[in-house]
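Tokens for chain A. Residues wanted.
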């Protein structure tokens, strides 16, 4: 009886696989994963090339560029670094010094030099983003492509392409992703050194450089050890030194209420209006800025502090492009909320998988970016948060497809999950297409502004006092006006309504 039973067990027990078979299967799996990952990088490269084409055909935005370039003509790197260390409300000496270095090294090819820096930042950003998604199957590749399309479709990313000649907000977003990649990899001493150098540059380039410290600290907190504990401590010491120098030594402070106009409610308010409304107590205005910045990332509304979608809804003037943006963002944020409901119990036990770690770091960066934006609201200021929002969305979508694959779902839930994936894919693809349409409109508008550059100089009270400054103005005007740009006024109405709404 015992012998028969043993025979039955032996007959039903699968024979162990031969060692060479297991090794062959593992090698095949690794090769397949490598091919899929290479395809993800190829897609990132294609997106980068397409964006580069837009950038090289996008004239400088006159308001953000010309005044700054004129200040670079008759100075030195040392002088401009020292003079911009103590500007009231802003401490950005590294931005100005870098601009001066590029300006002098360009050999007069200013547009080509600065735009090439933009392109390099885009390449680094997209490849670093693709690496963080850890594509390992066709399904995860599809999720990563939705997330990369979302990066292009975010309102802040549109505005970032048109931001100043150096485009610090784009560069800092790329640096943050690079640092997060280093943190999520194996620890090495050189990584600590690289991260600290990048942190010093970021802190002295823009106030948003503070978000790099948030990346470092949050990544270590959730379990990434590519940057050591000593590296995190050193980064925190640098942050403390930055605050000490900025607020106690140089008394730079933060931007004042009358620094610039800002959106509030249903329209943009001038600096004088803001002082009149909040001069006695600016805290409500600052709170509004933080909340509206956060809402812009999560729901694409308000834009620059203005609740234009709500205003147009009340006035029955909604355009399909605005509806698409808000609806896609609502659905995407809904998926991230679902992800939180699925994982929060594991978070309380601090039992974190890779998806959880990246999501929590992304949430920390988004919250910190909104907090830093308290003085005034601009979509472009939230570009880093927007990129990390897309990274968090990618992790939430990975969880959704893993749940669908891991266990059978009721037919209604399966249909709902598939519908969500289909709508997000279609919605973000259209919004990514809107990026290219928007670049065409911006190119046309920027070129028109350069035709009337003398009027702009007069209206902005910008004095052109030296021969070199006048030569710079004429050179840039000739180059920007001669650049071939699309005739967007010939676009059919549906393009303006869906892809480039007002």
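Reply:
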């Amino acid at each position: 009886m015992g012998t028969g039973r043993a025979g039955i067990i032996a007959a039903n027990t699968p024979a162990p696989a031969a060692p060479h078979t297991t090794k062959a299967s593992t090698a095949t799996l690794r090769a397949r994963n490598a091919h899929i990952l290479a395809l993800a990088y190829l897609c990132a490269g294609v997106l980068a090339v397409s964006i580069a084409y837009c950038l090289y055909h996008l004239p400088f935005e006159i308001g953000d560029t010309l005044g700054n370039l004129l200040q670079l003509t008759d100075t030195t790197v040392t002088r401009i670094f020292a003079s911009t260390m103590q500007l009231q409300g802003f401490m950005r000496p590294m931005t100005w010094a870098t601009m001066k270095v590029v300006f002098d090294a360009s050999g007069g090819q200013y547009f080509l030099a600065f735009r090439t820096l933009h392109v390099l930042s885009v390449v680094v950003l997209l490849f670093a983003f693709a690496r963080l998604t850890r594509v390992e199957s066709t399904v995860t590749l599809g999720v990563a492509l939705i997330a990369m399309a979302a990066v292009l479709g975010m309102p802040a990313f549109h505005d970032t392409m048109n931001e100043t000649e150096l485009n610090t907000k784009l560069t800092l977003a790329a640096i943050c992703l690079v640092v997060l990649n280093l943190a999520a990899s194996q620890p090495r001493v050189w990584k600590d050194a690289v991260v600290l150098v990048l942190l010093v540059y970021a802190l002295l380039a823009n106030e948003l450089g503070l978000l790099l410290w948030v990346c470092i600290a949050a990544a270590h907190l959730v379990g990434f050890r590519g940057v050591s504990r000593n590296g995190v401590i050193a980064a925190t010491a640098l942050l403390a030194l930055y605050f000490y120098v900025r607020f106690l030594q140089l008394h730079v402070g933060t931007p004042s209420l009358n620094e610039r106009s800002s959106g509030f409610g249903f329209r943009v308010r001038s600096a004088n209006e803001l002082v009149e409304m909040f001069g006695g107590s600016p805290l409500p205005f600052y709170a509004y800025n933080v909340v509206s910045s956060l809402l812009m990332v999560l729901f694409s509304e308000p834009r620059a502090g203005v609740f234009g979608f709500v205003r147009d809804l009340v006035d029955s003037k909604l355009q399909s492009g605005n509806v698409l943006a808000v609806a896609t963002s609502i659905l995407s944020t809904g998926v991230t909320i679902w992800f939180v409901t699925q994982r929060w119990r594991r978070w309380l036990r601090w039992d974190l998988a890779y998806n959880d770690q990246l999501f929590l770091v992304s949430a920390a960066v988004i919250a910190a970016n909104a907090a830093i934006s308290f003085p005034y609201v601009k979509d472009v200021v939230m570009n880093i948060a927007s990129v990390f929002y897309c990274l968090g969305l990618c992790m939430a979508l990975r969880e959704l497809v893993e749940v669908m694959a891991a266990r059978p779902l009721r037919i209604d839930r399966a249909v709902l999950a598939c519908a969500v994936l289909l709508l997000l894919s279609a919605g973000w693809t259209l919004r990514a297409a809107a990026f290219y349409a928007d670049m065409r409109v911006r190119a046309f508008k920027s070129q028109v502004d350069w035709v009337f550059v003398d009027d702009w100089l007069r209206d902005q009270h910008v004095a052109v006092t030296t021969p070199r400054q006048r030569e710079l103005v004429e050179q840039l005007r000739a180059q920007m006006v001669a650049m071939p740009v699309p005739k967007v006024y010939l676009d059919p109405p549906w393009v303006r309504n869906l892809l480039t709404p007002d």
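Residues 411-451 form the longest helix (41 residues). Residues 454 and 494 are 35 Å apart (CA to CA).
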